Amino acid sequence: MKKIVFIIIIILSFSGCKSSKRAKNKKKASTEIINRKIISENANTVENSINDKIEPSKSKAENIIEYAKQFEGVRYKWGGTTKSGMDCSGLVYESFRAYDVILPRISRDMAKRGDKISLKDVSTGDLLFFNTGNRRNSINHVGLIINIRDNNIEFIHATTNNGVITSWLNEDYWLKAFTEARRIL
Fold this sequence. Notes:
- Keywords: Hydrolase, Protease, Signal, Thiol protease.
- By secondary structure, this protein is α+β, with helices and mostly antiparallel strands.
- The protein is built from 5 helices and 8 strands; from the N terminus they run H-H-E-E-H-H-E-E-E-E-E-H-E.
- It has helices spanning 2-53, 60-69, 88-97, 107-110, 172-177, and strands spanning 81-82, 85-86, 115-117, 127-130, 141-149, 152-159, 163-168, 178-183.
- A hairpin with a 2-residue loop joins strand 1 and strand 2 (85-86).
- The protein is elongated, with a radius of gyration of 26 Å.
């Protein structure tokens, strides 16, 4: 008799755990819906405040460049897209995405977008693509043109050693690694 009572108590305790889990899941689902609504409302507020910060006198390219410059000094992190770490394609991807221009996440895929242009025709906001000789014989690095001065092109990009920096295309290393330029905007 004691064994039967003991078995019934164990069965009830297991079924009690199962029903309390369902109750927790239902409660979580309802708070998740509420949280989604709050996040959606906050996103609209954030979007409006971002749109308020866009100066109408600035071009989209100038706004993208300004956005990218805020990451200068951020350390390199493979696959990174935030101020805690950034890689070259992450920098370009996030800078364009901030202004509703969606690009592929990988530099060699970015190089398939837009129009290929010659160096003499580049302008600020255009992209430079490089083959730095790592692993594959294909494009593996990208930079965003931020300035053109005296036939020299300044671009912002993320390097493994120095993180997000600006460089000049006339530097020997970058000139040798240069593959092509593309206009996205």
